[in-house]
Amino acid sequence: MVMVEEQQMGLVRSLEDERIAQYARLTMPRISVVGLGGAGCNIISWIKERGMVGGKLLALNTDASHLNITKADRRILIGEKTTGGLGCGGYVKKGEQALQENLEDILKELESSRIIFLTAGLGGGTGTGGILRLAEALRGSDKLVIGVVTLPFEIERVRRKTAREALDKLTHLCDTVVAIDNTKLVRVAGNLPFRQALGVANELIGVFVKDITETIATASLINLDFVDLRAIMEKRGLAAIGVGYGDGEDRVGKAVKNALESQLLDVEDVTKAYGVLIHVSGGEDMTLEEVTKAGELVMRYLSPDAKIVWGARVNPELEGRAHVMVILTGVDSSIQKEGRRRFNLLRVLSRF
Ligand SMILES: Nc1nc2c(ncn2[C@@H]2O[C@H](COP(=O)(O)OP(=O)(O)OP(=O)(O)O)[C@@H](O)[C@H]2O)c(=O)[nH]1
Ligand SMILES: [Mg+2]
């Protein structure tokens, strides 16, 4: 008699467990990462090679030979009619058209996603045109759309202008655009040759997207959820990111300091930031106390009203070290004024 009761109880419990698991699966925000153009696809390959739990990787390019060597969960050759598989040669309009050709298929692929990262190197044709058109098509949906883009080095003159104009539009189309100015990469990478510096940018974006996705999708030291992310990223315009490592004694303190000092976009006034996302990862020996300290340190730099959101993950590869990412949302940057300043100077000069 007792045995039957126990069996029944066991059955009820396992049914309940199954129901919880099912519910967790249903409410788990689906995450997609879309890479557009050469740089975007290189970032997707970087993530795919390392593996990412909890998100889908989609690579889009007009350049067939580059797409052929890209690693992703799904690859789509866009704009066959517009470019014949040969790339856009820096023409943004062509990039927009190319994306439009395959828009239906892409939107279908993203249908069930609640968080979408769009990543590209601004300044070329495919990535720039494509990200603008796709962000526009996703606008107004209930999805959280986060752009993660790089801005060309200052030596890439024309490309920088194209990129600046695109960034301006993109901040109105995405919820948040995390922008990384390649010119600032020397802060984290030192003086590297051009190609290698781009590789550093790929890694930086790759780590950012992978860490956020995995902290949301899997059990973590401090979980980050969709609601947290939305609270600081929904309709927030421009965001800056800083990353830092630390080791030895006070590794978290050192990593926070490095992250704050290596913001990869010129932010006009950090105390005006709307919100901050702090993500800490460290070896298995990392304690909650260290993580809390990271938050306190960051808050000292910001306005007391700034919204703060957390995430922390253990990464066995970081034994004895800590890695901190600080993302400031709702910021203004001097990059937005760069073009206007030049224009004003030209106007002044033309009077003489
Ligand atoms: N982070 C990163 N940036 C890159 C990489 N390659 C190029 N870039 C930057 O991204 C900008 C755009 O280059 P691509 O991504 O190659 O251009 P695209 O979008 O493929 O455009 P088209 O080739 O004109 O169709 C360049 O001006 C560089 O600043 C890369 O591998 N990683
Ligand atoms: Mg290309």
What's the short version?
By secondary structure, the protein is an alpha/beta fold.
Q: What does this protein look like?
A:
- With 352 residues, the protein is α/β, with parallel strands linked by helices.
- The chain has 14 helices and ten strands.
- Helix 2 (37-50) crosses helix 7.
- The longest helix is centred in the first third of the chain and has 26 residues, at 2-27.
- The protein is globular, with a radius of gyration of 22 Å.
- The N and C termini lie far apart (103 Å).
- The model has no long low-confidence stretch (mean pLDDT 90).
- The structure holds guanosine-5'-triphosphate and magnesium ion (MG).
- The site of magnesium ion has 6 residues, from helix 2.
What's the N-to-C terminus distance? 103 Å
Oligomeric state of this protein: single chain
Structural class: alpha/beta
Tally of individual domains: 2
Radius of gyration: 22 Å
CATH class of the largest domain: Alpha Beta
**Count of runs of 4 or more consecutive helical residues:** 14
The largest sheet, given as strand count, sense and whether it forms a barrel, is: 10 strands, mixed
The CATH topology of the largest domain turns out to be Rossmann fold
Beta strand %: 15-25%
Helix share bin: 40-55%
State the fourth-level CATH superfamily of the largest domain.
Tubulin/FtsZ, GTPase domain
- Give the ligands present: guanosine-5'-triphosphate, magnesium ion
List keywords for this structure.
single chain, 352 residues, Rossmann fold, 60s Ribosomal Protein L30, Chain: A, 10-stranded mixed beta sheet, 14 helices, 49% helix, binds guanosine-5'-triphosphate, binds magnesium ion
